[in-house]
Amino acid sequence: MIRVLIVDDDPLVRAGLTMMLAGADDLEIVADVADGAEVVAAVNAHRPDVVLMDIRMPRVDGLAATQLLRSRREPPEIIILTTFDTDDHILRAMRAGASGFLLKHTPPPEIMRAVRQVAAGEPMLSPAVLRKMMGYVAEAGVDPRQERARALLDRLSEGELAVATRVGRGLTNSEIGRELSLSVATVKAYVSRLLAKLELNNRVQIALLVHDAALND
C-alpha cells in the first residue's frame, strides 16, 4: 500500500481527494491536515510515502512545508497540487524538492498515476511543466544560476552526464535504459550517484539543474 497524506486548507478539497483516492486498492489515505504548520507532526505520526501538498495556506505555505520535509533524513515524496500554474510556482516547487506538480483540475486517474509514479521513485514531469522549464531557461540568458549549474555538471563523467540530460528530458529509468543500452538497475545506480555527487534530493532537481545549465543533449 502507498500511504498518502493530504495537505490543503480547503476541507472540500481534502474530502474530495480522500474519496477519490480511496477508490484505489493500492492507495491509503493515512491523514489530512489543513496547513503546512501541521505537516511535520502528521508525517512523524503517520509516515506517509507521498504527500499531496497545496501551495497557498494561511500560516505555512506548501513550498516552505516542502523544504522542511525534504530536509529530513528519509523524506516522503511530495506532489504539489494547486490551482496556480505560473512559472514561478513551478520552479519554486521544484527547487524546494517536490517530485511532481499537478493542477487541481487534473483528472482523478492522472492524480492516482502520479502518486504511484513518485512513490516508485519516478518524478511526475508532465510535458506542460517541461515546456515551462525550458521556456524559463530560454528567456533567462546566462546568469549566475546557469554558470553554477554548468560548474556542477562539469563534475560528472560522460556516462553520468548522459543520464542526467535524459532525466532533464523527463524520461523514466526504463526509457533512459533503452536509449543508452543500459539495464534499469544500472540507470538507478547512475541516478543515485548523480544525487550524491550533485548534493540534490530527487530527480526533479536533477532535471531543473540540467535546464538551468541550458544543455542540449
Name a few traits of the molecule.
217 residues, alpha/beta, 5-stranded parallel β-sheet, 12% strand
Q: Could you describe the 3D structure shown?
A:
The chain is of the alpha/beta class and 217 residues long. Helix content is 55%, strand content 12%. The chain is built from eleven helices and five strands, in the order βαβαβαβαβααααααα. Strands 2-1-3-4-5 form a five-stranded parallel β-sheet, with helices on both faces. Helix 8 crosses helix 10 (184-198), helix 8 crosses helix 11 and helix 9 (173-180) crosses helix 10. The chain starts with a strand and ends in a 5-residue tail after the last helix. The mean pLDDT is 85.
What is the fold's blueprint, element by element?
Layout (H helix, E strand, L loop, with lengths): L1 E6 L3 H12 L4 E7 L5 H8 L3 E4 L8 H9 L6 E6 L4 H10 L3 E4 L4 H12 L7 H14 L3 H10 L4 H11 L4 H8 L3 H15 L4 H10 L5
Helix pairs in contact: 8-10, 8-11, 9-10
- Classify the helix fraction into a percent range: 40-55%
How can the largest sheet be summarized?
Answer: 5 strands, parallel
Estimate the strand proportion: 5-15%
Number of strands: 5
Give the overall shape: globular
Distance between the termini: 37 Å
Which consecutive residue ranges, at least 5 long each, have pLDDT under 50? none
Order of helices and strands: EHEHEHEHEHHHHHHH
What would the average pLDDT be, to the nearest integer?
Answer: 85
Structural class call reads alpha/beta
